């Protein structure tokens, strides 16, 4: 059985980690049996979550994990996609994971004391308070360095959020007339979209990008559709 190592659940969504939510969604899409082991990035290969244990092998990075799962369990969510749809899926994945994700991380880890308090409580609450403060502060420095290394952390805050709104506009337009990113049926790229969008829309961290996204009915409906389909035990997401 696959063992999925990820953050504890929070905020009535699958996971406060965007890529943890993505991977668990993919496992449910692909109907792969798994169990969850809650942990923190300090214990993980490559120092990040999620990772899996499969047949005694630890595998990190959601992209590498999904490729491994497809090789070993088949590619059920994407088996009917055309080459054109696969190209579109890759483009959407890059927008989501290489850009909008970092805008969201900027909001959580770099802007606002209250945002940081909420984020820290969700991720590090399993540690004793004094240890949690120290570990969280060190991890925050690491994430802020990554945000700056990406490049988005070097921009003025207003420009970061404007770029994020552009991403949200594109996603809302794509979902305005279809239930899933590629059409009538979900594909693996929807696991990525849901993992990032549900963490933007339904976590208590605030930002102008979140406010803008909450005003897009197509995105609200999409996250509700995905959560009720793949995580019915969580109920409807709470858009706060």
Note the main attributes of this structure.
globular, alpha+beta, 4-stranded mixed sheet, 4 strands, single chain, 9 helices, 240 residues
Descriptive account of the structure:
The protein has about 240 residues and is an alpha+beta fold. The protein has helices at about 20-30, 60-75, 85-110, 115-125, 130-150, 155-175, 190-200, 210-215, 215-230; strands spanning about 1-5, 35-40, 50-55, 55-60. It has a four-stranded mixed beta sheet with strand order 2-1-3-4, with helices on one face. Strand 3 (about 50-55) and strand 4 form a beta hairpin. Helix 3 runs parallel beside helix 7 (about 190-200). The longest helix has 27 residues, at about 85-110. It is globular. The mean pLDDT is about 95.
The total count of helices amounts to 9
The number of distinct β-strands equals 4
Give the helix/strand class. alpha+beta
Helical residue percent? Answer: 55-70%
Low-confidence segments, given as residue ranges, are none
Largest sheet: 4 strands, mixed
Question: How much of the polypeptide forms β-strand, as a percent range?
Answer: 5-15%
Rg over alpha carbons: 17 Å
* Mean pLDDT value: 94
Straight-line distance between termini: 35 Å
């Amino acid at each position: 059985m696959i063992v999925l190592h990820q953050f504890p659940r929070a905020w009535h969504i699958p996971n406060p980690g965007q890529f943890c939510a993505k991977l668990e969604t993919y496992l449910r899409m692909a109907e792969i049996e798994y169990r969850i082991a809650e942990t923190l990035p300090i214990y993980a290969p490559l120092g990040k979550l999620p990772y899996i244990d499969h047949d005694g092998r630890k595998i990190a990075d959601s992209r590498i994990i999904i490729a491994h799962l497809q090789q070993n369990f088949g590619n059920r969510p994407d088996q009917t996609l055309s080459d054109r749809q696969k190209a579109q899926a890759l483009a959407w994945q890059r927008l989501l994971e290489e850009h909008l994700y970092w805008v969201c991380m900027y909001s959580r880890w770099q802007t606002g004391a209250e945002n940081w308090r909420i984020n820290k409580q969700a991720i590090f609450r399993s540690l004793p308070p004094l240890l949690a403060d120290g570990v969280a502060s060190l991890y925050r420095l690491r994430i802020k360095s990554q945000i700056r290394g990406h490049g988005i952390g070097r921009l003025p805050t207003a420009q970061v959020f404007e770029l994020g709104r552009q991403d949200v506009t594109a996603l809302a337009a794509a979902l305005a007339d279809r239930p899933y990113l590629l059409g009538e049926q979900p594909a693996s790229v929807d696991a990525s979209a849901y993992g990032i969008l549900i963490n933007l829309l339904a976590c208590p961290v605030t930002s102008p990008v979140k406010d803008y996204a909450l005003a897009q009915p197509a995105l609200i409906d999409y996250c509700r559709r995905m959560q009720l389909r793949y995580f019915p035990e969580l109920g409807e997401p709470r858009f706060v």
